[in-house]
Design goal:
The structure is a homodimer of 287-residue chains.
Chain A: H1 3-15, H2 18-25, H3 29-43, E1 48-51, E2 54-57, H4 59-89, E3 99-105, H5 110-121, E4 128-134, H6 139-144, E5 150-155, E6 164-171, E7 173-178, H7 191-194, H8 223-231, E8 237-240, E9 251-255, E10 262-268, H9 275-286
Parallel strand pairs in A: 3-4, 3-5
Antiparallel strand pairs in A: 1-2, 5-10, 6-10, 7-8, 7-9
The first copy, chain A, binds a DNA duplex (30 and 30 nucleotides) through helix 3.
Chain lengths: 287, 287
DNA sequence: GGGCCGTCATACCGGGCGGGTATCGCACCA
DNA sequence: TGGTGCGATACCCGCCCGGTATGACGGCCC
């Protein structure tokens, strides 16, 4: 199976529509139909059910979509990491020193990251660290497709499956309320209570694909903006304990009694051969 | 990057020789040279250094070989699992019920496996389990390229990186000697002592590629044959505790004081969607 | 219910590229 | 200095990918 065929199939599977998939792929619809039909013939499996309003996946199609995405990510990772090897190793000793790409959520664990980067930079033989800050839920895919070499992730929010990891920090979660709110005098609240405070919806976090679930709360894009909403009495939010350092006036904090602990980890692909990743991890475990 | 290019590059990298790689791939040498040159151009990286006696890898080439193997395994897995989905789901409700492929080392952990299969078969909704027994070190690759859905592995011998797993059994290792050997009266021996017993070499285990390391001991292919050699006073062997059940007369057993514990685990790809795998794992954790 | 629309499949054509054979360039070696 | 072994180059052919035009078919609306 060629990656071209996989890309075509994934496009059709995701769009549920040959025409839109062809457009997204930058080709015409007939060659796409033909390629998918050929793939189905070679696999001996019907992947899609064609209807008069598009195409839906069969069971075999679901499997190929799932496994195929992982395979495509692996191929992209191979390509990206090879490119990075040559440009950082400086083919022919030309220039650019080796570096490692570390990705993390913007606005999360900044203290841990700062300590890690400082400590690592002091190590002998440390390579340059490119810090790439991204919206939540993007770190895992970046690690899988080679855009990053190592990531700071948060369990149970991020998908850490398939990665090697070291735990950096375990913390409780807190409910952040407008100062003076009735609940702010409580010693603790439950998750159920926090998610149904009259007039104070919790913000919605983006999904992996960047879309937002349905609901009443504001769409969370920038933590400062959401905290402003909380201060104005328009929302509440649940954050890990370390965020307390960034809070300013006008906010009240109540521990959550039954929320899962947030675990901050450093994660990397299990087959990583990068000396930079190894060094960062070694430094991280010593913190 | 197309999988064809990756396959070509991996072949050349492994053979270190364009001619032999072309033969292995079933094509002529000139198109292969051209394909690799084109890949290098597109990646903007020299992957191979051509010499008058073959080709050796550059640093970028090492990266691509490493990442590329993983990517090819992922693509193969996608293809195999899709094929298996359709043939087991019975396209059109034709026949073949769903099944799951479990792989394990021949001759290891047979007790655990028997208990697991019995317990799972008694579960409601259990699917058929194809048990595939292979030589040591083959289970991990099989899980990675989709030939198997779930595996019984042994730490620290097998490479479990990137898999989800549950521990089934932790055991000490034992030195197996001919009955009456001088060491057989000892309360325990060290690994260093065990690996340098005069006249009693330890057998050599095959590597992932099936080849054997250099050394004096017999090549281990069949455990019964090796135990026969031990009985005859021609070898010694280190085995986990559970192997004690299979020992017959003529053998003495001495605990190893400093050998790592052997951990038997059940492992599966972290993104597995198979109900059969989930059921097997659930059963295994209850044992 | 018949025309119309949307969607995917089929038919057909052209060009690019992958693969083959023949040959060259080159380094080592006897 | 010819021989040998290896990869690169030159050149040709045929397949397959991609494009345009058109067909088949189920819904939908008036």
């Amino acid at each position: 199976m060629e990656t071209r065929e996989l890309r075509y199939f994934v496009a059709v599977a995701e769009e549920g529509h040959f025409g839109r998939a062809a457009e997204r792929l930058g080709i015409a619809q007939p060659p796409l139909s033909r390629a998918i039909a050929q793939l189905e013939r070679r696999l001996g499996a019907d992947l899609l059910v064609r209807t008069h309003r598009g195409a839906t996946l069969t069971e075999a199609g679901e499997t190929l979509l799932h496994e195929g995405r992982a395979a495509l990510a692996a191929v992209e990772a191979a390509e990206r990491r090879t490119r990075r090897t040559v440009e950082t190793a400086g083919a022919g000793g030309s220039g650019g020193r080796p570096s490692v790409v570390l990705t993390a959520k913007a606005g999360a664990s900044s203290e841990v990251i700062a300590k890690l980067l400082d400590a690592y930079a002091a190590e002998p033989g440390a390579v340059e660290v490119d810090l790439v800050l991204c919206p939540p839920a993007q770190q895992s895919p970046m690690l899988r497709d080679g855009r990053a070499d190592v990531a700071i992730l948060h369990q149970p929010f991020d998908d850490v499956s398939g990665f090697d990891l070291e735990v950096l920090l375990v913390e409780e979660q807190l409910l952040i309320l407008p100062a003076g709110h009735a609940l702010s005098t409580r010693r603790s609240v439950t998750v159920a209570e926090a998610s149904s405070i009259p007039g104070l919806p919790l913000p919605r976090w983006p999904r992996v694909d960047g879309s937002y679930p349905e609901g009443p709360g504001p769409e969370l894009r920038d933590l400062t903006q959401v905290l402003q909403l909380v201060r104005l009495g328009r929302a509440a939010i649940v954050l890990p304990d370390s965020a307390r350092a960034n809070l300013r006036d006008g906010l009240a904090v109540v521990p959550l009694s039954d929320a899962p602990r947030v675990t901050t980890v450093i994660a990397w692909p299990p087959h990583s051969r990068s000396a930079g990743v190894a060094g960062l991890v070694r430094t991280a475990t010593r913190l």
